[in-house]
Amino acid sequence: MFYREAGQFKTSYAADSAILPIRQDRIFIIALLLFAFVAVPGLASDYLLSGILIPFLVLSLAALGLNLLTGYAGQLSLGSAAFMAVGAYATYNFMLRVPGMPLLLALVLGGLSAALVGVLFGLPSLRIKGFYLAVATLAAQFLVEWVFTKFPWFSNDSSSGVISSPVLSVFGITLDTPAEKYLLTLAIVALMALAAKNMVRSSLGRAWMAIRDMDVAAEVIGIRMLRTKLLAFAISSFYCGVAGALYAFVFLGTVDAQAFDLNRSFQILFMIIIGGVGSILGAFLGAAFIVLLPVLLNLAGQLLHGAVSSQFMSNLEMMIFGALIIFFLAVEPLGLARLWQISKEKLRLWPFPH
Amino acid sequence: MDWLFFTEVLVGGLLAGVMYSLVALGFVLIYKASGVFNFAQGAMVLFAALTFVSIQAMGVPFWLTFFITLVIMVALGLAIERVVLRPMVNQPPISLFMATIGLAFFLEGLAQMLWGADVHGLNLGFNDEPFDVGGVFISSFDVFAAAICAVLVGSLALFFNKTRLGRALRAVADDHQAAMSVGIPLKQIWAIVWGVAGFVALVCGLLWGSRLGVQFALTLVVLKALPVLILGGFTSVPGAIIGGLIIGAGEKLAEVYLGPILSGGIENWFPYVLALLFLLVRPEGLFGEKHIERV
To answer: Where are the transmembrane segments (chain A) (predicted)?
Structure first.
């Protein structure tokens, strides 16, 4: 950026531990939030809102959850979609079976249910490490998928196993236009991102990073393994659960176990790889990238108009996806967030190289 | 309880387990030799099988097709080593693992782009007639697969334990940097390993392809092999076999005896839960190398 922090002195501990210590950064973030809350709902088309922005926000939230677990606490998980499914089904059932249950409370309860399931599948992490754990989390993925398709109680005995979501209303206001749904999602995501940012700066976040870097050493300096690891699983699953409920209710409009399959888990994993492992900003950048890439490839395909088949395009899309992941890991293992940081540092010194 | 039926299910499960072992073997091979958990193994199996079937469809005889596909697979392995792994030397294993997930996507796209996404039949010229051993019917194809698997495992075990190259491979798996510093040529070693992995993928693709038909679902074979892998331990060739047998038998028995109680469809998750239970007792799998951790 073309600004320096010269003249901005920290005169209190509070100023020293501020999230954004530089004034210009604060102004930028506030302007961005104002733009997102005030200008976007008025300016953006319905397609942009419900086709791109809402999935982007919801998937960012899920990526944020996985990033807390994998990026900060270092526990690789391939089952994030399972926790999303638990959140979605639990929220649905709370709203269905408890009369007068408000949406926000149901979302929180759905998230808590996902957290509970997360802790359950996090228990093996106390014994198992690394790839063994990654494969073990696949057990969550397949078991949860099976439970929701095999037991009709969860989908209210609907014959197809697919259920449409109830009417969404918050504080007596019914949300039915894309702009209103977008605002609900944005508010939840902004709040939870702020919470996550603070969490990773707290003692809990530092304990996670200590475990990630070397768990034996972390244990030696007195970090309680049981509590810290299980909290990582619980909080991560809570984020994923809320994201899953939003994905089902706000984006899809249906609750369907097929929407939370293994590919969704991989998609979220890719988001944090491309965005940046161990970075809050990275979750958003990665989600934006993964949501936008198919849209852009689609547009490119339309330009070629008929020259290539849709099958060719979908195969090409897969190849580009895979190649990009390899490219990012080889060139910049810390992802887009790191690139952003580097370019900021470069611009700070510009026009001098050092 | 019908013991004859039980035996039949058990034997069927054990033989199916050998097929899982075959996939797991591809993983163990690469893991043991380079410390990379190669998620793209399933995509390589699909690629090999699709390439084989497509070349055979041009009217090329079996052995020539086998040879051409083998050359392609080894070349693919070398290319993977050059393009994907070489830039990533000394990166943490988790980055390497994620890179192979990307590789899996790339190969699945490439295979279908080159050869199309149709389901192909694959006939190895082998008549799958069940034969009767004391009242228990056994699929002769499964026995054939088991025999091939046994030969592969035997030769790989010899290779790893008795040859100079095998020792170099194990050293590389232990620590890239240390291996390089004692003069082991990392690039060559990885090239060899990926070439051999291509060969295992081809054998695997042929056996599984003639069983399931050559189609996209072949990549899902990986998901069957993963529980075998963690059960047996990533670093153990015999572990892959024993793990495969346990998972195969356990899965089939659970499907038959537990399935009806739980309204079916349990074969997707049962192997994972079974493997998880074993892991809780032995965190490195049954035969995995014990890791001593130091601060």
So the answer is: 27-44, 50-69, 76-95, 101-123, 130-148, 182-200, 230-254, 266-297, 318-340
CA–CA dist A321, B102 (Å, integer): 7
Tell me the backbone φ, ψ of residue A241, rounded to 5 degrees: -60, -45
Give the ranges where B116-236 is alpha helix by DSSP (H). Answer: 140-162, 164-174, 176-181, 186-212, 221-232
- Among A83, A55, A54, residue whose Cα is nearest residue A68: A83
Contact A266, B219 (CB under 8 A): no
Positions in chain A whose pLDDT score sits under 70: 1-2, 158-162, 164-165, 305-308
Chain A hits for B295, Cβ within 8 Å? 214, 216-217, 220
Position with higher pLDDT, B211 vs A306: B211
Q: To the nearest whole angstrom, how far is the Cα of A200 from the nearest Cα of chain B? A: 21
ipTM: 0.81
Residue A266 is nearest to which of B101, B234, B275, comparing CB atoms?
B101
C-alpha B68/C-alpha B51 separation (Å) is: 9
pTM score above 0.80: yes
The pair of three-digit structure tokens given for residue B285, joined into one six-digit string:
């799998």
**Residue of chain A nearest B228, judged by CA positions:** A135
Name the token pair of B169. 């491979």
The predicted model gives B247-252 an average pLDDT of 87
What is the pairing mode between strands B130-133 and B136-139? antiparallel
Which chain B positions have a beta carbon within 8 Å of A136's beta carbon?
A: 230, 272, 275-276, 279
Is A87 within 8 Å of A243 (Cβ atoms)?
yes
Domain spans of chain A, in order of start:
23-261
Structure tokens at B151: 């030969």
Q: How far is A250 from chain B (nearest CA, A)?
A: 29
Range 199-218 of A in CB contact (< 8 A) with B = 214, 216-217
* Residues 108 through 127 of chain B touching chain A, CB cutoff 8 Å: 108-110, 112-113, 117
Residue ranges and CATH numbers for the domains of chain B are: 3-281 (1.10.3470)
Tokens for B171?
A: 């050293």
Question: Which residues fall within 8 angstroms of residue A43, CB to CB, at 6 or more apart?
Answer: none
Would you tell me which residues 17-56 of chain B have a C-beta closer than 8 angstroms to some C-beta of chain A? 37
Residues 6+ apart with CB under 8 A from A158: A152
Cα–Cα dist A118/B192, whole Å: 41
Report the alpha-carbon distance of residue A123 to residue A145 in Å, rounded: 20
